Amino acid sequence: MERFGVDVIRPAVVTIDMHRGHLDPHVATMPVAPGTEARTIRNNASFLAAARAAGVPVIHMLTQYTDVSEIRSNPFWRTRADDPKATRKHVERHQLRGGPGCEIMPDILDPDYDLILDTKRRYDCFEATDLEFVLRSRGANVLFFTGINTNSCVLATTVRANVRDFAPVVVEDCVDTMDGPELHAAGLSVIRTAFGWTMMAAQVESEVFAGLAPRREARSGA
To answer: What are the residues whose beta carbons fall under 8 Å from the beta carbon of 156, sequence distance 6 or more?
Structure first.
């Protein structure tokens, strides 16, 4: 079994932007490819259920902006908003507080167990959020990432986790991107080459979660 470079594996699962703004085609401002939503939601729901059964903390990172100025303060995003041909041309409408996109997909959420951190405003989930504090307080050292997008938020967060001396693992069949299969594969390749591990959900469940003492705690528990 992979030991991820640590003496004792203390895992946590972090989902990244598994919200309606990407995964609900009725309201999404930056949707994944049509027809892929159900697979990503289904795979995450199954994986998170296994994590909870093993007592692994589950943390959902939710992008949310107070107003458009928080989006346009990023120079690159400003150029995307001003380019009608850009894949992220709707960035100024994406995840504004109070909008329908600012909801974790219900099928993957257990409100009695999971924790939602809703102050994510950049690709990197650690930037200006409480994520590291929450992880350290729970003793986590191996982080299993799922979510959207493989080649932006998932990649940026994995790089930061590596730099912060966590052991980052991307769950391959629980991540996807609006940018297509080539960039999805490229993101995973970059991660496994220089920053962390990639594994399929079933492998994580059989090799990591199965070895943990079964327990279930409310989200307030450490």
So the answer is: 122, 123, 124, 125
Q: Structure pTM? A: 0.95
Structural domains of the chain sorted by starting position, each given as residue range(s) with its CATH number in brackets: 11-68+97-211 (3.40.50.850)
Distance CA(167)–CA(143), nearest Å, equals 6
Q: Please give the Cα distance from 142 to 90 (Å, whole number).
A: 34
Task: Say whether pLDDT at 186 is over 50.
Answer: yes
State the Cα–Cα distance between residues 207 and 202, nearest whole angstrom.
8
The DSSP call for residue 107 is: G
Angle at 188 between CA 182 and CA 191, to 5 degrees: 140
Q: How far apart are CA 190 and CA 196, in angstroms?
A: 9
CA dist 219 and 214 (Å) reads 16
CA 212 – CA 189 distance, rounded (Å):
29
